[in-house]
Prior knowledge:
It contains 11 helices and 8 strands. The chain has helices spanning about 40-75, 105-115, 140-150, 170-185, 190-200, 210-215, 225-240, 250-265, 265-280, 285-295, 350-365, and strands at about 80-85, 90, 120-125, 130-135, 160-165, 315-320, 325-330, 335-340.
Amino acid sequence: MSKRRVFDIDFTPDTAAVPAGTAPENPAEKPAENRRGPMATAISENADALRARAEAEQNIRAENDRLAHEFVRLKKLGLVVDRIPLGKIRMDKLIRDRSDKRDPELDELKESIKSVGLSNPIRVEERSDGTYELIQGYRRMRAYFSLLSDTGDQQYAAIPAGLVAKGDSLQDLYRRMVDENLVRRDISFAEMAQLALRYAEDTQTGAETTEDAVNDLYASAGRQKRIYIRHFAQVLKAVGGSLKFPEAIPRALGLELKKRLEADAMNAQMLRDALARVQPSTEEAELEVLRGFAEGKRKNAPRAAAAPRPGVAKTTLRCTVPAGTVRCQARDGKIEMAMDHDFSAIDQRRLEGAIAAFFEALGDED
C-alpha cells in the first residue's frame, strides 16, 4: 500500500493579527450587514416625499377654506366687485323708484364717469341662469348705456358691480334700493309715492295697503316725510293716469292738490278733464294747470289770443339767478315768481327780509 504524500502550504497573512478587544481603525464605517440596499433607500425616500406632499396639500386646503370663508364674508357686505357686461344685467325683480322721463343730473354723472370712472359700483344679485339682477344703481346703469350708445367705446359695455349674497328677502332688497336713493339723491315725492303704490300691488311683498308699503319702504325716513309720501300717493291714485310729469310736482303743491281732491269727490274728475282739455306738453304747462286747480280755478284749453282788456296788462319774464331760473308774471296789483325751490324750508325772517328788499328796490326805481 502506497503512502500519501503530504504537502505543507504556508499562508502569509495580509494584515497583522488584531488582538481581541481592539477598536476598529475607522469607527464611522458600519458593518456590512447593517447597510441598506438600493431598494430600501428608494422606498424610504418615496415615503418622505409622500409625507411632504400630504402636508403641503393639507396647508393648501386650509388656505382655500380660509379664502372661501373670506369671500363669502365680503360678498355678504357687497365688497366683491367684478366687471359685468350690461347685457347680462336684468331689471325684472324690483320695481324701480326712478322715473325714466326726468333726470337733469344724468349728464353730470356721465361726465364724471368719463373723467374718473365709476367710483361706486352698482349692486347685483346673481341669478341661477348666469345673469344678474340689478339691486342698486339704476342711474349708473342708464349712464353706462348712454355712454356706450354715444361713444361706441367698449369700455362702457361692462360696468363695475358688487355681488350681493343670495338669500335676502324681497323687502330687504327694496330697502337697499330705496335707502341708497334717499341718501345719494333726493328723489321726488311723486316717485316715492309711485313706488309705494306698485309695492302695495305686488302680492310677493306682503304689504296690504299703501300705508303698509310706505312704512316698509321708507322706514328710515322721518315720520313727517312718510306722511307726505302717503299724501302724494293719494293724489296719484286719483289722477296719476292723467299726469305726464308727476315727478315735477313740488311738495307744497302736492299737499294742496291732496286737500282739494279730498274736499269733493267730483274734484278728481274735474282735474282729469282740465288736463285732457289743455293737453300740457311741458312740465311748466302741466304745473300751471295743477296750480290753477289747487287755487279753485278751472283751466280751459288755450284759445286764440284776444285783445288785452284795460287794466289786465301782464308782463312775463324769466330771470337767471345763482339758485336757478325764476319765472315771473307781473300784472296790476299782483306779481308771481316761481322756481324749482322749496321756499317753505326757509326761515320766515329771511323771507321777510328778502321781500322787504325786493319792494325797496322797486321803490328806488320810482
